[in-house]
């Protein structure tokens, strides 16, 4: 099992709250964790908070990686200790190798995602959540296409100059 930092734990907890209780409720009822920097943006060397447009672009980058049909390119969008709860597998993926393995299977269906509804929450200069509904268009080996509607949550964390997925949950809409 990987070691989680207090910030990572707080981010994942916030993602669960936002996904389960709704963004307005979670924001109103959850004070910032005691270890969170209170005035990080005021510090002259602190990173600027990303815009919702910048966070939305991270999905576009991930979706473009799907189009390469290269599992390693897609897996490179995830932190080394990311957690993936994928749409088309019951196995929780917690290692880079397991994430690559999942995408080797999933990319055979030539998936392309399209956001249908989303809510982006910027938690800090280095953390954000994008959650909502998306639809995948899948193409089988005979060229027949099908659509799959799914719910998603991406939790992003800035690692240096790069934003990586630290938690990704996707499930078919019931």
Automatic annotation (TrEMBL):
User: What InterPro entries does this protein's entry cite?
Assistant: Ca/CaM-dep_prot_kinase-assoc, NTF2-like_dom_sf, Steroid_delta5-4_isomerase, UCP028470_steroid_isom-rel
Calcium/calmodulin-dependent protein kinase II association-domain domain boundaries: 53-173
Give the keywords, sorted. Answer: Signal
Pfam families annotated for this entry? CaMKII_AD
The record's GO molecular-function terms, alphabetically, read: calcium/calmodulin-dependent protein kinase activity; calmodulin binding
Record flagged with keyword Signal: yes
Identify this protein by name. Calcium/calmodulin-dependent protein kinase II association-domain domain-containing protein
